[in-house]
Amino acid sequence: MIDPIVYATPVFAVLIIAEIILSIKHEEHLYETKDFKNSLYLAFGASVITSLTKIAVLGIFFFLYESFKGIRLQLLGYESLGWAWWVWILAFFADDFSFYWYHRMSHSIRFLWAAHVVHHSSKYFNLGSGIRNGWTTMFYKPLFWLWMPLLGFHPIMVATAISINSIYQFFLHSKKVPHLGFIEYIFNTPKLHQVHHSSDMQYLDKNHGGILIIWDKLFGTFEREPDTNTLTFGLPKGPDTYNPFKVVFYEYNNIWHDMRKVPSWKTKLKYMFYSPGWSHDGSTKTAKQIQAGLKKQNQRANTYSA
């Protein structure tokens, strides 16, 4: 079976070129040459690694799917969920639920953030940034989907759902799409995804959903776009380079540096697995800590103004 992303890639290319042309025509400065070239290098590297690891991932999915048929039959009364239309709908929701938690954990655990930070490293929000992906993501991302073949979803169905989700997310990375009204109550949209890519402190770690935004609303990570529409994109502190290798390993290097400065292995592990920004001496803070401080400041300001 051919990955749906293969068919979508020419469409991606045409839309990126069209967005660049429109950006130049209307002097919107949505792209910067060196930044876009870096996105292409990063996308190429990620594509090569994903292609090489996909067979192994599918192999693991098939192993779990086949190995647990007997257990499913005993405990759940079936060997496989099959291919019925309603199973595809279940797979759609299960995949998007898995993506939400993969994405949220990629922002919450620093060692995972080190892989995902690449996607957020551009200061520009455009379709080109939609293909900017880390090279180490595929070594942990499939873990969040293992439960699906275990439960009886066919591995090909799982892989297809993952690809469809990825295709949809490409279209989220454009400033050319306006608000979509009632659609934004259920689905993730470019306007909502701009919030996710903002480097403004109050919007960090928000809107993690893939296709659906309902998970963010259920689990408390939803945030609407500000009325002022003055979002800043990129990272509060990120790699100031166009070298793709330095971008890929930027946060890993920072983790290594932080681990070296403390003697305790317990503290070293905290620098790996606690949230980005955590520090043993409070010299740097996590997004939640900063947001809590901003909330207190606003509450005090409102009290004084009243």
From TrEMBL:
It is a multi-pass membrane protein. The chain crosses the membrane at residues 6-24, 40-63, 83-102, 144-168. The keyword Oxidoreductase applies. Coiled coil: none annotated. The keyword NAD does not apply. One of its GO terms (biological process) is membrane lipid metabolic process. One of its GO terms (molecular function) is iron ion binding. Residues 88-221 form the Fatty acid hydroxylase domain. One of its GO terms (cellular component) is endomembrane system. It is found in: Endomembrane system. Keywords: Lipid metabolism, Membrane, Oxidoreductase, Transmembrane, Transmembrane helix. Its main location: membrane. This is Sterol desaturase family protein. It comes from Rhodocytophaga rosea.
